[in-house]
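ligand=3-isopropylmalic acid
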Amino acid sequence: MKIAILPGDGIGPEIMAQAVRMLDVLREDGLPLELEYGVLGGAAYDRYGVPYPDETARLVRAADAVLLGAVGGPQYDTLDRPLRPERGLLAIRKDLGLFANLRPAILYPELANASTLKPEVVSGLDIMIVRELTGDIYFGQPRGMGVTAGGEREAYNTMRYSESEVRRIAHVAFGIAAKRNRRLCSVDKANVLETTEFWKEIFIEVAKEYPEVELSHMYVDNAAMQLVRNPRQFDVMVTGNIFGDILSDEASMLTGSIGMLPSASLDANNKGLYEPSHGSAPDIAGKNLANPLATILSAAMMLRYTFNRNAEALRIEAAVKAVLGKGLRTADIWEEGCEKVSCSAMGDAVVAALRAA
Ligand code: IPM
Ligand code: MG
């Protein structure tokens, strides 16, 4: 089990250090894990002058899975666009063909008060957002900035999906829905955009292969509204790259604790890149304040999806729940009556719970 570890920028190295401790425990217990470190994003720019260097590409191509901390920081915001950390993330997704992005939004009962929504609206929330990750307006050509025939400056991007791109994400989404509550909501803007009208047509075709799954369709503006009005109506949501980027941030905040949410980005063979849904939080970097749980839970997703080790994944998830149950909280999820702990102390507690399990 070859894992490429990319700590990245900002809080990335500190949260990754805690996730690696969990993998070390599992290795001591006999899991054949091999970890190798690399750089991505700003850290890669600092060392090699580019956000996704060849050294990193070679490392991640040879690995079975990639565990990533986070990328980005204000010191890189003024770099030429192709050199910015975010471009490294887009490049690794495209290079590894990681077209299926799974972003669960789960409300832990212990954290019911963390949401800005009323507890009765979000309690029991468990949504899986499936976002297409290597197509759409993020990658469509032509793109650029230029000058019109009339001499005015302009900029343009292209929303574009091929049939095979839509079909493969549809199969992933139906497959996931079939294993959950068998309800799949495909989000589009078919009333305006041909690209997503096409998306919807393909989903209706693929649905015939999954009679056990109930497929529904929703316009993206309505979906944004329904997510805050009545989020529990959703089981699995599937959508394109740009809508998925936006809706997954919205859904994560329903849980009130983006510091808790892992994500997986998978290729056609379940090779995957796993990362917390949150960013690099430069404001608290290096202060031992960050919440490592999303990264720890990303490692659990890795064991489940790439390595088919559901028992070990459940063991990590149970350890996290046990620690929350004991009232330990990092600053981002802290509330009155709980014990505020640092990033590394949270790691200590999860390691102890993992050893005890
Ligand atoms: C995400 C992020 C990225 C995206 C950025 C950092 C390029 O927002 O993973 O959701 O837009 O995909
Ligand atoms: Mg985003």
